[in-house]
Amino acid sequence: MDIGRYINMQGKAFAVWLSFLSGILIAQPVPLQTPIPKKTPQATYDLPEPLPTSAVSSEEFERLTGLQSLPVSGGQTGKGIDHPATVVHSPTRLDQGRFGQSVVEQVTDPMGRASLPQLPTDASVPNASTTAWWQERCMKPILTTELNKVYAVELHELVWQAIQHSPKVQSILITPKIQRTDILIAQGELDRRRFGQTNYNDTSTPVGNTLTTGGPSRLNEQFWENKIGIRDKNSLGGNSELSQMFNARDNNSLFFKPNNQADTRLSLNYTQPLLRGAGMYYNTSSIRIAGLKTDQRVATANRELQDHTRDVISTYWELVLQRYLLEQSRNGQYRLKAIKEHLLNRRGTDLIATQVSRATASIANQQSQIASAKANILGLQESLRRLVNSPELAEDNCFEILPLTLPAVQLADFPLEDELIAALTNRGDILAIQEDIQIAVVLKNLAINELKRQLDLDTTSYVQGLRGNNEFSESFGDQFSKGRPSLSAGATYSFPVGNRSAKANKLSRVLEIAKLQEDYKDQLNKARADIKSAIFNAQATYESTEAAIAQTIAQKDEVDGHKARFEDFMGENPSTSNILTDLIFAENQLIIAENSWATKQVQHMLALINIKYESGTLMTITAE
Questions:
Q1: Separation CA 326–CA 115 (nearest Å)
Q2: How confident is the model at residue 575 (pLDDT cuts 50, 70, 90)?
C-alpha cells in the first residue's frame, strides 16, 4: 500500500473551509448553554468627510498623505488611492497587459483625491453585512503606484500556493514517507535468504588407535566443505532451510574407501514453534507496529500542516488589518490637518496656542501610526513570502501583496458534537494517542504469548550420494537414483522456573495501556475544552465586532455634530475655535473606534479559523 500525500477537504469541513475563504459562513444550530445571537449588523459606514476648506494643491496633498503621484492618460496625474468598483478574484498583477485595456479613467473621492483607475468588472467586491469605506479602499494598491509590482490574491489561492511551494510543507509531507520505510524493513524480516558457504581444512593429527588409520601414526586429511541453499521464515514462525552440500574429502587411512570422495547431500530442515512464538499475529507484529507508527507520524504531520496553514491564514489577516489601519490613519491625518488649517485661520480672534499644539500632536500621532503600519505591512509581506515561497510573491516581481478576501461580519454556528467527532478522526494529538494505545495493545498481546512454554518441533529429511575420484556429477545423481530419503523428527522444550521476566513484561504492558487510556481521556477533555473555548471566542469576537461597529457609527455621528455646529457658527460666532478643539478630540476618538472595528473584525475571522484548527479539519493529510 503506497502512501500518497494530498490535502483532503471532505464533506462539511470542505464547505465550511471554502466559506471561510470567501468570507461567507454557513449558519447551523449550536447546542451551547448561551445562545449565539442571530442578528447581523445592517449599518453602512461611509468615508468621513473633512471640513470644507480651500482646494489642496497636488504638492500639498503629497505632503499630507505621503502618496506618490500616478500618471494617467490625457496628461493628468492621479493622487492617492480610492475604492475600486470591482476587483479581479484571482491571483493577478495589476498591470495593463493582464487587464488588456489602457488606463483612461480617474476616480475622485469625497476629499477631492484622485485614485487609481478602476479594475475590470468581471467580479463584484464581496460584501459583509456591514461594510466600511476602508475595506473597499484597500482593494487597491496603497503602497506603490507601479501596477506591475502589485500581486492581488485570494486567501484560498495563497494557501494552495503554500502547499505547492513551501519547503516547510514539503518537509512535512516527506516525513511520513520516511517512517513508512519501517514497514518495508519489518516485512523484510520474512524475506527468503539465499546463502552459500565454503570451508577448506587440511589437518595432520596423531592417532592413538591403529583402527583409525590402519597403520600410519598420524591422520593426514584434506576436507573441502561447500554448501548453498535458501532459508525462509514464514508468518507462522516456522524456519525452513533447503540446502545442497558438495564435500570433497581424502586422507591417508588404509580404511578410507573410496579415495578422493565426492560427498553430496540435499537436505530440508524445518523448525516450527508450537506454543511460545507461534502464530501469525506474533510473527507479523513488527509489521503491524511499523504501520501504526506510520499512521502516528501521519497524524503528527497533519498537525504540523495545520500549524503552517494557520500561520499563513493568520499572517494574511494580519496583513489585511495593517492595511486597514494604514488607510484609517492616513484618512484621519488628512481630516486633522484640515481642522488645523481652520484653527490657523483664526489667528487674531479666539485662537489659543494650546489648541494648535493639540492638533499638531494629533497629526504627529497619526504620522507615527502610518509609519508603524507601513513597517508592519512590509514585515508581514516578508513573512508571507517565507511561508508561501511561491514565485509570484518573489520580491523582484511583487512589491505589494494585495489581499482580495474580505473579512465577514457574520457568525457561523458550529455544532459542538460535530466538531468533537471531527476531532476524533482528524486532530493530530488525539490520533497520535490512539496509535500509541494500539501499539501498546500489540505489545501486550506479545507479552501474553511469551508467558507460554517453549515447545518447538524439529524435522529433517535428506538424500545423499557418494563417489570416489571426485566424481561430483555422478554423486549428485546418486542422491535421487540410489537409496531412499532419510527422515528425523523431534521436539525441544524449555520453560524458566517462575517465569518472572515474562510476567513482569506483561504487567508492564497492562499498566502502560491503563496510562495511555487515562492520557486519551485527558486529551479528549482538552480537545473538548479547546473547541468550546474556540466557539465561545468566535461568539465573543462577533459580539465585540457588533459593539465596535455601533461605537464607530455613534462616534461618527458625534463628529458630524461638531462639524454641523462649526458650519452653523462659522463667521457669526467669534469663539468657534473651541468647537474645532472638540472636533479634534472627536476625530481622534473616531480613528480609535475605526481601528477597533477593523481589529475586532479580523480577530473574529481568526477565531472562526481557530475552531477548524482545534477540530483538526483546517487541513488534513490522508494516506492511501
A1: 16
A2: low
